[in-house]
Design goal:
The structure is a single chain. With 634 residues, the protein is mainly α. Among the domains are: 146 residues, no CATH class; 93 residues, no CATH class. It is 57% helix and 0% strand. Helix 5 packs antiparallel against helix 6. The chain starts with 11 loop residues before the first helix and ends with a helix. The relative contact order is 0.03.
Length: 634
């Protein structure tokens, strides 16, 4: 059977049904990967061509609108034998009435309707979708038809044309190429022939002015593209490229300063269309004439002066980027790197002192634009000028301490500065302590109780005195210090010097006062000292975790009162002079036990009236424990 044989069929209805069935059969074979697809395709084409010729339809259209019509006719032939029913069983297709601009009349060959393009193309898309055409193919056919109808070229030579092309493609698919008077898109104004967005889509080129501000125009373009389903990242790329081309800005950066400018321009392009608004950005002064921020965005060099200090300039940049929605962390990174580059500061560190300097520089870069203001408003920091120690230190000069500039005063200023620029207190304390430890050659760690006590004291000395005790510390209970003072020597090299004129209990009393005066809780200070003395004397506490033995109690008493070593002459009635083989000395060393009441009286006298009741309770507890162990046969 050949297509020409269909002419012998009686009646138009029979002819259509047979042709529809045969075409559908061959189309189905093609979909199911027919073993001889060339034959199936040939028959399908012949049948469709015969149908089109009989209806007087163009089988080989040359225009985009003709190709859209051909695709719709093919699908209607396969589904409805070439005649769309009056009530099509397809969602989105209204009832087909005669003498109306309906799809049926368009399929029959009536002129292309242009009065309501959005509604017409919506129906065409619904028809094709309902008849099995893929979304991408529908989109391409629609866009090509609309572009042809509007006389638009479907290519772009530059960034601004790419942005326009993307907007036109989306508008063609969603609205038939013409925005409705009320697009229903938040941020897009009502449209008419004079509306900026409509004029732009039609190809008009205009200069931005107070009447047509760049901010409002690009904001509407972005909102339109969002509504048209364009990916957010692509929208940003298109807008940025268009604005950069419009302003003549380059899209590359070779330094930190250029990277800051590049990112600022990108944000200004997205938020304001490349032009900073006159007076609507919080924290940014009015932009007019040769405003520093606008001049910088344009690419003009910035010269700092009393009227434009770095703090003000970088503060404006930060406020601008904040207003555009850039993440705070990225803003800080960009500003910091630009300031570091300008000042010639290194961002790499190897030592604790370099880490302290880096933290201060980072804060100064973000807060003051890399330069401390001459008139300081920070309590505890004097006015800055070129010879000032803090300014010189930030520049990278090595600070030498002297009577005019002591270590405590310098590190106090550093601490105030770090807190003023937003460094957390704990981090600031750690940075300063580590720097002082490194400067003094101290080890920042502890392996035993003696080292823990020394470490705690050194940390306090580092934070309060810059690592070296002054002649007058101003601390209660601490005598005048010198280089040979026991406390200073202990902090310096870790050695405890005990002499007859300076016994252990005096040394540990000074250590206790030192710790407590500098903020350590008395209970913690006492425990640190006790642990250190116990270790030095080789004492071990009792094994019972739920109670303290009389010996432990006495040792703690002696450790805290006498630094762990009883003096030879206690000058206490009832206690004889102490020698290595005396009862109290041997008992404290653990070489003998309590055997009689005379020895008990010595212990009571040693501990004193304020500790006697505790001693009696512990003594009774020890006796009960001893009786229990005898009863159990130990």
């Amino acid at each position: 059977m050949t297509p020409s044989m269909l002419s012998v069929l009686n009646g138009d209805r029979d002819w259509r049904k047979v042709c529809q069935g045969l075409a559908f059969y061959f189309a189905l074979r093609l979909q199911r990967e027919d073993p001889s697809p060339e034959v199936a395709a040939e028959w399908y084409q012949k049948l469709m061509q015969t149908f089109f010729e009989r209806e007087g339809w163009d089988w080989k259209p040359e225009s985009a609108r003709g190709r859209l019509l051909k695709k719709a006719r093919e699908r209607v032939v396969l589904r409805f034998a070439g005649r769309l029913p009056s009530i099509p069983p397809i969602s989105g297709i209204p009832v087909q009435l005669k003498n109306h601009n309906t799809l049926s009349r368009w399929l029959d060959g009536d002129p292309f309707p242009v009065r309501y393009p959005a509604e017409f193309y919506r129906q065409v898309q619904a028809l094709l979708s309902g008849l099995g055409v893929g979304r991408e193919e529908i989109r391409n056919l629609t866009v090509d038809a609309v572009f042809e109808q509007q006389g638009w070229k479907n290519e772009a030579q530059n960034a601004r044309e790419r942005l326009l092309l993307e907007a036109r493609r989306g508008t063609a698919f969603a609205f038939g190429g013409t925005l409705p008077s009320d697009p229903g898109i938040p941020g897009v104004s009502l449209q008419d022939r004079e509306a900026v967005l409509t004029r732009w889509l039609q190809g008009e080129v205009f200069e931005f002015s107070p009447r047509i501000p760049a901010t409002a125009f690009y904001r509407q373009v972005q909102k339109l593209l969002e509504r048209l389903g364009v990916d957010e990242e692509r929208i940003e790329t298109l807008v940025i490229d268009a604005v950069f081309e419009q302003e003549g800005w380059k899209k590359s950066a070779e330094s930190a300063a250029e990277m800051l400018l590049l990112r600022a321009r990108e944000e200004v392009a997205l938020a304001f269309g490349g032009r900073i608004p006159l007076c609507s950005v919080p924290g940014v002064p009015r932009q007019e004439g040769r405003s520093s921020l606008t001049s910088w965005i344009r690419g003009e060099p910035v010269v700092f002066s009393p009227n434009l200090p770095p703090r003000s300039f970088y503060g404006q940049i930060t406020a601008l980027l904040n207003a555009t929605g850039m993440p705070k962390r990225e803003i800080e990174m960009l500003v910091k790197e630009a300031v570091f580059e300008e000042r010639g500061w290194a961002a790499e560190t190897e030592t604790a002192q370099e880490k302290l300097l880096l933290a201060a520089r980072e804060g100064v870069a973000l807060t003051f634009g890399g330069r401390l203001p001459i008139i300081s408003k920070m309590e505890g920091i004097p006015n800055q000028n070129e010879p000032s120690s803090l300014t010189r230190w930030l520049k990278g000069e090595k600070i030498t301490f002297s009577t005019k500039l002591s270590a405590p005063e310098f590190y106090r200023q550093v601490m105030v500065l770090l807190l003023a620029v937003g460094v957390e207190r704990e981090r600031a304390l750690t940075l300063i302590a580590n720097a002082v430890f490194e400067q003094q050659g101290w080890t920042n760690g502890a392996q035993n109780p003696s080292e823990r006590l020394l470490l705690e004291a050194r940390k306090l000395a580092a934070l309060r005195f810059g690592g070296r005790l002054p002649f007058f510390t101003g601390l209660k209970g601490i005598p005048v210090q010198g280089e040979s003072g026991p406390l200073s020597r202990w902090l310096e090299d870790g050695r405890i010097v005990i002499r007859r004129q300076f016994p252990a209990h005096r040394f540990y009393a000074e250590v206790s006062h030192f710790l407590i005066e500098l903020g350590v809780e008395p209970k913690i200070a006492r425990q640190l000292i006790l642990d250190a003395v116990f270790e030095q004397r080789g004492w071990k506490r009792g094994e019972a975790a739920d109670r303290i033995s009389l010996l432990d109690f006495a040792r703690e008493w002696v450790a805290f009162r006498y630094g762990g070593q009883l003096p030879q002459d206690l000058s206490v009635k009832g206690i004889p002079k102490q020698y290595p083989d005396s009862f109290l000395s041997r008992w404290l060393r653990g070489e003998t036990e309590l055997r009689n009441m005379r020895q008990w009286d010595q212990i009571k006298t040693l501990l004193g009236s304020d500790g006697e009741n505790d001693a009696k309770a512990i003594f009774r507890q020890d006796r009960r424990e001893k009786i229990r162990r005898i009863a159990e046969g130990h």
